[in-house]
Amino acid sequence: DWTPEHVLESLVKEVRERVGEDRVLLAVSGGVDSSTLALLLAKAQVNHLAVFVDHGLLRLGEREEVEGALKALGVNLRVVDAKEHFLKALKGVEDPEEKRRIIGREFVEVFSQVAREAGPFRFLAQGTLYPDVIESAGEQGAAKIKSHHNVGGLPEDLKFELLEPFRLLFKDEVRELALLLGLPDPIRLRHPFPGPGLAVRILGEVTEEKLDILRRADDIFISLLREWGLYSQVAQALAVLTPVRSVGVAGDERKYGYVLALRAVTTEDFMTADWARLPLDFLDEAARRITRRVPEIGRVVYDLTSKPPATIEWE
Ligand code: XMP
């Protein structure tokens, strides 16, 4: 019968037997699936290299948090600082799908380079879950709303056998494994975060200055949700930096600041979603804190749109 301990034991055995003395490569995004997969490889004591590409589109402190946790738990992790590379590729780009394509392409390029330098590897491990297996089986005809960025499309000269130990598991089961493997709660219980990161939360062109503003504002919002015990009651929460500047007052001067949108949703499956009824006192405090600590932001609004017709992200 099914217990997390039992599942973990059989996955460790499966990975060990399949991999043997060969080498495994994997990409770590900082999300719960890839982090747990890295921990599973470490636990199975197979020869592995986990690659974390810092594309410069991460949230405040995210890289350090993931790096610290995984290394402490025995993962052989290499962090690649590719911030400048990505920012350069995104320069002047405003279209969301174009941003996604560029980020996907650059990701493959950076990752492939590491794979070549550190290779050869026989296996590529991926944190594919059961719902992904089902979805890609039925995906052919379905119109895709957004081109979700994935590790696919590696160059011809890099050939791997896929290792997908979670292919029969659901997200909740991976979270249970993560608990057994010691993944810290902030990573284990983290909301989903898109592969293209903050690039699709800055409407229009992505610049270093805008990333810095959004990172600080997002951190205040998310930290406050945790403080109020609201973080786990919503499925996803995010801040969006709009290109709109509105007028405000600072002392006796008129000042133009960015409009920041806060969004929080409840959902079962992310296909449809409802906007979260966060307490007004909470929203009041979030707006005050953000405008006080991030002076570049002049106005804070809360998104009252469900999905459909809106999507969860703004791009
Ligand atoms: P939307 O905005 O389509 O988002 O309602 C549904 C879920 O998917 C996430 N999302 C992405 N994840 N790459 C990803 O890995 C992407 O390009 C992407 N776009 C949206 C979004 O955060 C939400 O959880």
Automatic annotation (TrEMBL):
Binding site for ATP: 29-35
EC number: 6.3.5.2
Known catalytic reactions: XMP + L-glutamine + ATP + H2O = GMP + L-glutamate + AMP + diphosphate + 2 H(+)
Broad EC category: ligase
Keyword annotations of the record: ATP-binding, Glutamine amidotransferase, GMP biosynthesis, Ligase, Nucleotide-binding, Purine biosynthesis
Pathway field: Purine metabolism; GMP biosynthesis; GMP from XMP (L-Gln route): step 1/1
Any one Gene Ontology molecular-function term assigned to this protein's record: GMP synthase (glutamine-hydrolyzing) activity
Residues of the GMPS ATP-PPase domain: 2-190
Protein purpose: Catalyzes the synthesis of GMP from XMP.
Subunit: Homodimer.
Protein name: GMP synthase [glutamine-hydrolyzing]
Organism whose genome encodes this protein: Thermus brevis
Gene: guaA
Included range, full protein: 189 to 503 of 503
